[in-house]
């Protein structure tokens, strides 16, 4: 059984009403419920959302003690937060970066992820299903790591 820290960054609490033509109409609550269902019965997800960079850094530090991996949509922090990047590198938990939108097809400032180099991988462009795909990839990675073929 793996416990996955699911981290949602700034403004993602507004999903469902925020720029729905870009981010879709699923609320954060529904996305968390879908992740919970996908993780069952063998795994557990522990979702956390904050609009504050430091609170997210603290959560990632704390996850060292109980998580097997991190699934994160860092929101705009993706593009500039070296503090978040350092936190992910420091805890050494396998981390998957997920975005609802295809950040590479949007404004140029979104094309760069300062987190990607310290993440296992990045999934973007599949709407709320990016989270499900990211969770699956992370769980498969953890399973393979614990019993290599
Ligand atoms: C986002 C993309 C970011 O550029 C943006 O700042 C967000 C959401 C996404 O899920 O597509 O807040 O991470």
For the record, the CATH architecture stands as 3-Layer(aba) Sandwich
Which regions have little confidence, pLDDT < 50, spanning 5+ residues? none
Averaged pLDDT = 97
CATH class: Alpha Beta
Strand order of the largest sheet: 2-1-3-4-5
Distance between the termini: 19 Å
Which sheet architecture does the biggest sheet show? 5 strands, parallel
- The count of helical stretches stands at 5
Q: What's the number of domains?
A: 1
Instruction: List the ligand species.
Output: 1,3,4-trihydroxy-5-OXO-cyclohexanecarboxylic acid
In CATH, the homologous superfamily goes by the name Dehydroquinase, class II
Q: Spell out the helices and strands N to C.
A: EHHEHEHEEH
């Amino acid at each position: 059984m793996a416990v996955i820290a699911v981290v949602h960054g700034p403004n993602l609490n507004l999903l469902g009403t925020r720029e729905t033509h870009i981010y879709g109409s699923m609320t954060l609550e529904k996305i968390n419920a879908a992740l919970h269902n996908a993780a069952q019965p063998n795994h557990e997800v522990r979702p956390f959302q904050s609009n504050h960079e430091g609170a997210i850094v603290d959560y990632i530090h704390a996850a060292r003690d109980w998580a097997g991996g991190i699934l994160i949509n860092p929101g705009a922090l993706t593009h500039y937060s070296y503090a978040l990047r350092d936190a992910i590198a420091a805890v050494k938990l396998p981390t998957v970066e997920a975005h609802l939108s295809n950040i590479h097809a949007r404004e140029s400032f979104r094309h760069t992820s300062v987190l990607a180099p310290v993440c296992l991988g990045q999934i973007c462009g599949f709407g709320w299903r990016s989270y499900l795909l990211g969770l699956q990839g992370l769980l498969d990675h953890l399973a393979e790591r614990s019993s290599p073929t």
